[in-house]
What we know:
Blueprint: H1 4-11, E1 13-21, E2 28-32, E3 39-40, E4 50-54, H2 56-60, E5 66-75, H3 76-79, E6 90-91, E7 95-101, E8 113-118, E9 126-134, E10 142-144, E11 148-152, E12 156-161, E13 166-173, H4 177-211, H5 216-245, H6 251-283, H7 294-315, E14 319-325, E15 331-338, H8 343-378, H9 387-400, H10 417-428, H11 430-442, H12 453-467
Organism: Certhia brachydactyla
Subcellular location: Cell membrane
Protein name: AGRG3 protein
Amino acid sequence: LLQSGQHSWLAGLKTLLLNVSRAVSSDVLITFSPTVGPSRLNTTEKGKAGKIHLPREIFQSLSSQTVHVVVTVLNIQQLGMFKEINQTAQVLDNTVLGITVGESSISGLQDPVQLTFAHRELPQGLTPQCAFWDPSKGQAGGWCSSGCVTQPGDKGTVCSCDHLSFFTLLLNPALDVPTAKTVMAVATAGCGVVMAFSTFTMAFCIFIRCRFRFEETVRINLGLHVNLVGSLFLLNLAFLLNSGLSGRTHPRTCRFLGGLTHYCLLCCFTWTALEGCQLYLLFVKVLGTYIHRYLAKLCLVGWGFPVLVVGVAGIIGSYGKYSIQTMDHQVIAHLCWITSKHLLVHYITNCGYFGLIFLFNMAVFGVVTQKSCSLQGTGAVQGYHKPWKVALVAAGLFCLLGATWALAFLTYGTSSEAMLYLFTILNSLQGIFIFIWLVVLYYPKTKETTGSLSYIIRHDKTTTASQG
């Protein structure tokens, strides 16, 4: 009756069925192996097989005199089952272990079930985590570690769980605790650096805007820069307050801090998008159009739109306590942020929103770079013939358009320690980059102020008009 496809399916499934009396006076011990399958444990047996320890408590709580104990070893690579969406962790030996006793579900055990997953020494950068399959997680189910304690060892990992289910040992790419704490220390110090240089930058922009007579385009640009740097200042201030107060705040205060931090982050993203829009209008639509009270309308969008997003997220209860921890459940820091139950809010409002902004801004960056290079080729912009100045302008625009934030996408699941360090350090230096860029670019050293973007724009407008 078996077809050829069913033979391969059964090859990945091995089951042991035991009849165990309710009055059993000792624990039940079973061995399992991905190749051999499960069997009753022989006390003289030695080898690399895993072990299952079922406590007496399980059988004493059952009503019938005799129960069926079913232990199943599954090879999920052959079966094509237990695949979690966007899963970053590996399943040890592609092995999932299912345990059922009787016909009812068993949970809340005082004496836990112990499963020993045998393995060699794990590679560096991988942390074992005991998990069970939760069919209610997400749309198609997923791995969960609630109720399980992980005890790693050199020759095996012991999982102590207070219930019966389908279990496995996940190998997660994770940072070790010292590295994670170092990254947090660098991030905290970086917040102070960003706040200091953001203050310098805002003071510098306000000073030259009031001191020198620039054309309207440059004045609008300076106003944009002040608002972007101001949002950076508020974001880093909110993070410092959050990390310092979140561990001992009232739940309502924590929700407020989480919403405030989210608002400041969205403001930073929005002003980054507005910087890109302004560059598009200046370099692509070079002849431009006059907009009454243009900067005030930009402020309404930059500071007002995030209020709507945070308001909706707050109504559905998205904010609360959030713990940053390693895969072996060691807590590194507590934050007031979007809770784990509302991760979809984070993916839409943060990841999705910034992803769209980043794609648009990188397209604008490419156009601006192409325009600048073409103007340099004609010899119109003498001030930019120096290679260091060209590199500085490009790097400044890169930071201004939020490229350093894009590195966060490459640190997903903390799989890349180098990328996590790079993201933390570059974002800490973002305030310094923008400050130096603005000083070199905008401070007038000659009457023509040939170092400013307005000089390039004027030449580009003149060239476009003459071609028309």
